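User: For my dataset I need records formatted as: sequence, then structure tokens, nothing else. Please produce one.
Assistant:
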Amino acid sequence: MFIAIPENDFGPVRKLIMESITPKLIIAAVKLKLFDFISDIGTTAGDLADDMGLEAVRLEPVLDVLVASEILEFKDGIYRNTSLAVEYLVSTSPLYQGKALQLSSHFNSLIEDSIPELLAGGEMQREVTDSEWGAEDAIEGTAQDAMSSGLAPVVDCISRLPGFDDFTSMCDIGGNHGLYTLGVLERNSKMEGVIYDLPHVLDLVQSRCNNMGFRKRITTSAFNFREDRLPESQYDIAVMSHILYAMKKDLSNAVKKIAETLKPGGWFVSHHYTRYEKSADLKAKASLEALTRLCGYSSHFIEKDELTKVLLLHGFENIRYENVSENGFGLITMAQLEKR
């Protein structure tokens, strides 16, 4: 028989592949500043194409994809930005995410192009990817991403810690853009902060902090968490945002280093992902974990019970957790070092 009769519907898989163009169209729209060109009263596909110097017959289906993705609205021939697009995709918005989206797309593409090799045991060129985190656009991208997700709730949690008003020092490990330190220091004028990160990141980070008026209150220091140790009994707060997972294979040693750098009674605050939040999208969790393991890390998730055991082992108490809506599986961990 030359014609096989299907027993299953292959449509769902075909649909996934067809829809894979959607994120690329969104990134292209951001690069073209399409959302900036859509006025408050909206526009037709033809008028928008004229304004942007594009082909209307090609632009229209792209706009329809953005409508189907609930990024644009369409009614009576007029396309309008949704409130989401106004808040995050118009380049003049304080919460603009253009560089964050492009950064994620860039690093994902590095993995996508090498999946067969990585599955066979190949390794990401870590020295290349690490160096790219020091580029200005990468730092701005990570800053934008933080502002749209965990930054505000993490800073709010820290500012509500017992004794916060009396704290004088903090460190931000792998602090990159520095916004967590800036946010905390805004809440307490007596505090000073140190941002620890890889050497090639620091000049831009220090410049950012200086330009925001924190020249005298924030310093930066070269640091590799896998190899270096932090100064002992130095800080009231140690913060890590989406960094601790990289030390998951040796979580006990990582927490030990953090305990050593805190003053007695100081607080460790970690912002990371947990797998077991029921509200989280299963496909999103699986996709994140696939990206993470293909990069060579053991997992992007650290669970409450796993972390609690390690924290207790190294002298932490008053351990508390707060969920963050970030992708449906964000988690803030707060733990106080015993006062001894």
